[in-house]
């Protein structure tokens, strides 16, 4: 009995070593190749057995709101392993085979966010496992839309959102960003709909509603994505195009005409685009994010369609992920800044290349302002670039720290090294690590060896990455175009009427800066003056609307424009807009309105958005 216990203990110790980093010398199991790092957000133990390729054969049932079928995997089994572990959450697993033979499997107990480990016993020579399964209607990655929630109003729609750990709610998978796989898929959908994935895609509907896909480059599971709807494709450039519902196509295509130029600018900076085509799907407004960098096919919110191309930086951002994130991937969600910080930096460089420095400076300045707010609001422990998300939902790490502190860190390095040197460093970094994952520690070593030492730089890397707040050498960009906005804002506050302000040539970003420059102490008359002169409440620009509504609520002017706020929150499901607006209402005496709007709007939101809003309401005291 006692020796059994010791044996078990030894096994479990060995197992935890197997899933540790390659340079971990303490492993006594020489036969196992410990090439993966520990990811606390996945049950997978890739050091024992790992999936390399997924072959998906599924049907989307819009009546039952389920995806069901078979997922077949090519696997590599390391010596000493007797099972393979996959992540699964809220899945009904009907049958498992190993190399064609039906095999009993175990689903472990369920943990919040993580779901259940699916353990499949395997022999040392196992090559293929197949899982027959179906999703449940509440699967969190999936949003099933009724026709009324689409632009065309006639057909249903489905889209998935995998990042960070939701892919396991629609495919049993090793759902860790440190594990990469190729995939192919056959997806059956109602004949009147088209299916697209983060893979090679159709450009017209098929007669039978069956679609085949292939993703030949290895990607992490969070980048597997699917959308199904009444879709149409339009080409923009030689390898770029847009998918959306027919009634949105004109608007979408005319907004996104610069996509091809963006790809060219990105390649000129950091090397060849490695994913063949770059297309964008403009989704219904309930999409919970601005954009999601699904390889070959960025998923985007329609809230970027401002009519004047002023919000297309979001496309540059998602495109930039084709290098930072999709080519070189954060090894765990603690390393999230390696995805997002690099991507914001890269996005700004693409925008500068296309639209000039004064434009990029406005974006940088807006980013810096929101970074300062974030640093003020967050617990200092959450303001380190390298996060500690053990025991937490990785969604908690999604703050401006990863994005903006990360980008400012790289700007600081750029300033220290000089632009050409830094660009060469980044280009080589992407090339040296393509199709691999990256930990923060590995990056720091690479940075020391390839940028800091050779150029004799004196930079406080550890303070930036492992310390709180903003180090003293945080670069601050001043925007020329905002200097005039500040003057006009000051004039208004001194009493100059809104209609006589000099707003000549202002674009979306000047307006956003102007709204953000308003203090919380405006009178109702001042708010009315601004609204009448500039039409903020009725703006067709979602960013301006959101900024203005937040200001209005904070000023006590929100009561005057409740119908507009309600309409906005019912139509739009982008979490970045929802959180500040509901928070402002809860904190500024509009809790009842917030509740009533939320009751109406919640059915339109994706789980990512309603989970956050549910928490917001439940944590706010009466
Ligand atoms: N990859 C993110 C979205 C994401 C992050 C989803 C973490 C789930 C978990 C995407 O690239 C992103 O950053 N989107 C931003 C837009 C961007 C311009 C900052 C968004 O959705 O607002
Ligand atoms: Zn991003």
What report would you give on this structure?
- The protein is α+β, with helices and mostly antiparallel strands and 622 residues long.
- The protein folds into 3 domains: 4-230, tricorn interacting facor f3 domain (Immunoglobulin-like); 323-466, Neutral Protease, domain 2 (Orthogonal Bundle), CATH 1.10.390; 503-619, Peptidase M1, leukotriene A4 hydrolase/aminopeptidase C-terminal domain (Serine Threonine Protein Phosphatase 5, Tetratricopeptide repeat).
- 38% of the residues lie in helices and 19% in strands.
- It is built from 18 helices and 21 strands.
- The protein has helices at 2-18, 246-255, 259-270, 313-320, 336-355, 357-377, 400-417, 419-432, 440-452, 461-466, 480-493, 508-517, 524-534, 542-555, 562-571, 575-587, 591-601, 607-619; strands at residues 49-61, 66-77, 83-88, 91-98, 101-102, 106-107, 116-121, 128-135, 142-145, 157-160, 180-188, 194-197, 210-220, 226-229, 232-235, 240-244, 278-282, 291-292, 297-300, 328-330, 436-438.
- It has a 7-stranded mixed sheet with strand order 5-4-8-2-1-11-13, with no helix packed on it. The chain has a 5-stranded mixed sheet with strand order 15-16-17-19-18. Strands 9-10-14-12 form a 4-stranded antiparallel sheet, with no helix packed on it.
- Strand 4 and strand 5 form a beta hairpin.
- Helix 5 (336-355) packs antiparallel against helix 6 (357-377) and helix 6 crosses helix 7.
- The longest helix is centred in the middle third of the chain and has 21 residues, at 357-377.
- The radius of gyration is 25 Å and the shape is globular.
- Residues 1-34 have low confidence and may be disordered.
